[in-house]
Amino acid sequence: MFSNYLKTAWRSIITNKVYSALNILGLAAGMAVALLIALWVYSEYSYDKFLPNYSQLYQVERNFTNNGEIGTVNSSSLALADKLRSDIPEIEAVAETDYFNSHGLMVGDKKLYMNGAQAGSDFLKIFQFPLLQGNAGLALKDPFSIVLTQATAKALFGSEDVINKTVRVDNLHDLKVTGILKDLPSNSTLHFAYLIPFSYYEFSVPSVKADRSAGFDQNAYQIFVQLKPGIAYAQVEPKIRGIEKKYKKGANTDIAMQPLQTWHLYTDYKNGKAVGGFIEYVHIFSIIGILVLIIACINFINLTTARSEKRAREVGVRKAIGSHRRDLIFQFLTESVLVTFISFLFCLFFAWLALPFFNTLTGSRIGIPFSSAAFWLMMIGGVLLTGILAGSKPAFYLSSFNPVKVLKGIKTGKSATFSRKILVVVQFSCSIALIISTIVIYRQVQYAKDRPIGYNLSLLMQTDLNNDLGHHYEALKNDLLRSGVVRDVANA
Length: 492
What we know:
The protein is built from 17 helices and 15 strands. It is α+β, with helices and mostly antiparallel strands.
């Protein structure tokens, strides 16, 4: 029976080529837009989920009251890191870090200036990034050691085995390579090219070592925490909230921790809690994706019901020879699902073509996960749901025709016309809303881009000034001015 429904549906599609092409391509375009947005939304929600213990990871924050308002910062003191280690038994590990600055790396005549972190010895225990070589518990123990990512190791040493080789940092000290990390995935909140022990930071910058014994006033560092298995944040929160007040008289700071799961999407704080941020854009684009899919489905419904007069005689003949209404409903739904499935194939092709441009626009590295069983299960479910939703009104409407009336000649009733008008109004309202939003956003971007900023961007260039260059700034400035191509030089 089902094969008969399928053959009849296919015959109807082939017979009406122009109508079928319009329906398929219109639905495919809407589905492609929805798929691209869905992949992007999934990517945003997937940040840091690749870490095996991500649910137990937190960043320490400080809430302070100023003029009656609560402000939140993630800068903390080294004294706080030490107290969290000693006073809170529910905490498995603590790692202090700098703010992931850039440093000069040199091997022979190769010199690179790259972004990296100076991190406490438990950093790789907390963030279990895949380590290709070395031991996560020991890699950052020696102050004169360095852990490189795959790409950084290749850039500095080529294809050589780099373990125990040395890298000169900021033209000051030679650090021994003790580990190689697999390159971090694009959906990692933390990005760095190498890790240097925090103990080296304290050795090379005496003021940092002094900050550890200076109490809770030198808040210039980040602190990351891993809770013990089975420990919930609610158990720890009362113990850490007033820990700074316990050791510092007159402190007006409450300590809190933000879970790793929300770092990427929740960066705006209100009353000491993360309440918004990039998540707002994720919600907006999710709504846009749903609206585009609704527009495509309404277009499908309108095109189908517009052909009701031609399909009415088919319904009349089928009912006259004994077909039941439920059989006709199933027939039309089968046809709708088949059209949706063909549209989905075109949707995948359109999305595949658009992905390079989409990734450039969004600054992401999204791909269609063809090898994922979960992806195909979701897509099949989506195709069935879209096909049934898009085909339900035509199926129930067409199957309701009276065989005697339609064989004499159908006249469209007021209710059918009214419902079609409602769908057209909804479809065009969604389209107009999206067009207006696009124009407003475009004009805002152009205004921000073209507004006067007080200086001319043309012919301006910038480079980072690391410690090595900073010590020789005057010599660098004089060389640039003597080159004949530089008019002025300034540092900041």
